[in-house]
Amino acid sequence: MPGMKMRRENSIKIQRNFEYILNNLVNCDGLVDYLFSTEVLDYEQQTTIEETRKGKPRVKKLLEILMTECGDCYDAFLEALREKKLEEMANLIDSDPGRNEVKRERPITRSQRAKVEKGEMQEDHFNIWNSEQDFLVTEFKSHLGDLITKFFSQMIIDSDDKEKIRREIKDNYNVGGATRLVEILGERGEHVLPRIVKVLKPTYNKIANRLEDRLAELKLDILNNERFPIQEQVEYE
């Protein structure tokens, strides 16, 4: 109900994840529109949020209004996050209040660290990866937390990589974090690109299919070159 505070136990869940939300929910405009369309926010509240400076200030204003002016809208807020494909954020906010971030992210073991391959992609795969960098950053920045979790669980990145990405998020928001993730993935072994595609499926098929199409084109070019090799010109005196 507008004008009423969120229930204390729910408000505390948002409060203890306040900094995490500010760092990861860089653009909340779509979320605001969704909350307005579902009548969680009224027109005056929506206008107040949209008139606030973009980035962290706007996200902070949204959280303040949800916690103090919209009644017990906690479940609606989580539903909105999931609707906007921010399920990992919703799950983290709704997790056990007694568990801190260190416990949520179990450190990688020495045996696991050994499985994280380091090294450059093979040249033709890296050319594909490098040419798609702008597209990848644009797509990754909206789902950064979930992608980090997926690549970490499949031993493509490790704890050190995650810390590097977090520092970029802190300094440059999700665009910086996404750019750093793309750079790191390009240095995760000669044959990492097919592994990346596999991790992206089926949740991020738009990205996976685009990379898969590029790999298919590469394979076709290789086959054509094998069938019809370029003949060297021979000069005759």
From TrEMBL:
Residue ranges of the region described as Disordered: 97-116
SUPFAM superfamilies, per the entry: DEATH domain
Database matches in CDD domains: CARD
Gene3D superfamilies: Death Domain, Fas
Signal peptide: none
Family annotation (InterPro entries): CARD, DEATH-like_dom_sf
One Pfam family here: CARD
BP terms from Gene Ontology: regulation of apoptotic process
Domain of life: Eukaryota
CARD domain ranges (all copies): 6-96
Protein name, entry field: CARD domain-containing protein
